[in-house]
Amino acid sequence: MISSNASRILCDMGLRESLDHVGIHMRRVVFMKHDDGAVLSDTRYSDDVEEKLGAPLWQIHRADLHDVLLAKAREIGVKILMGAKVERFDWDAPSALMEGGTAVKADVILVADGYRSSARGEMLGKYEEPRFSGNSAYRALIHRSEFENDPVLEPLMNVNNQTTYCWIGKGCHILGYPIRQGEFFNLVSTQPARHTKGPTFVVPIDPSEFVDQYKDWDPKLVAILNKLPKENVLEWKLCDLEPMKSWIFPGGKIVLLGDASHAMLPSAAQGAGMGIEDGAAIAELLDRITHREQIPAILKTFENLRLPRCTYIVDSGRQNAKKWHEKDAKGGTVTDEMWEYDVKGAAREIPLAGA
Question: Fewer Cβ atoms within 10 Å of its own Cβ: the N or the C terminal residue of the chain?
Fold first, then answer.
C-alpha cells in the first residue's frame, strides 16, 4: 500500500498518471473474525478522501512501483550501475570502495542496501541480522479467472469498490485484496514461522501447507485458499530492526536510509512509505545548503527529523500485529493518522542542526 503521506511525494514527482495506470484506489478496509468471518470493523473511504488527505490511497504491486520509479530515474538521467558490489566505505573522503579496487567518490553518500544491510554492520563494527519476529508471511497471487462465476468469490475482485479483507485472531492474520487492476487477488498471511526459523529468509512452500494452516478459519477464506496456484507460494521470514542510536557514519558524510536503518513489519503498512519519505526529506534538506561543509549538519538534521517518526512506526507495526493476533481481536490499526504527514514541509521547516 502507498498511503497519502508517500503518494503526495510521488505525485509531486509527476508520477500521478503512471501510478493511476498500475494502481487501484483503496475504498474500504474490512476486519473480520477469523473463524466465521463476522465483521469486526468496516472503514470506508469516500470519494472525497483524496481531498481530505491531500493525495491518493493506492494499492500497487511492488514490481509495478519499481518499474515506474525506474522509468522516472532514467528519464531524468540517473546513472544506474548494476552488479557493482561495494566492499566498504571510506568514511572521510567519502567514497564507496568497489570490488576490484575502484573508488566511487561523492560529496555525500546515501546508503539504502536493505534490511540485511552490510553497510549498517560496517558502521556498527559488526554485522547483526535484523530482529526476527518469530513469524513468517505466506504470500501468493491468485489469478482472477479462479474466481469467475463463483457467486461468493467473484465480488472480491470488484476494483470499483477496492476492498482490503483482513481476517484476524488466533495468533495469525490474513490480508487479501485485488491487485494489478484486478488481474490478481493478492493474499498475505502472518503466522508462526515454519521453514524460516533458521538462516533461510525466503522459501517456496507447498500450497497445501497454507491451506492446512487456516483450514478451520472462515469458510470464505478457505474457499479462497483452495484457489491457490500450484507454484510461487512463498514463505518469507518477518523481521524488523531495533531502533538505532544513529544512522550517520563517523565523518558525517554517509547516512543509512530506508530498510537499512528502520526496517519494519508489513503490519505497519509503511515500509515503502518510509523509504519514499526518506528520499524526499534528504532531497529537501540538501537543497537548503550552499557549501559542502554543511553536509554533516544536514545529515544530522535528517536524522533528527526522521529517526523519531520511523521508530514510532516500527513500533506501530509490532503493535498492529499484536492486536490482530489476540483471541478477541477487534481490528483497526494504530497507523492511519500517519497518512496526513507532509515530510517535505517538515524538512523545509526543521531548524538545521547546530544552527
Answer: C
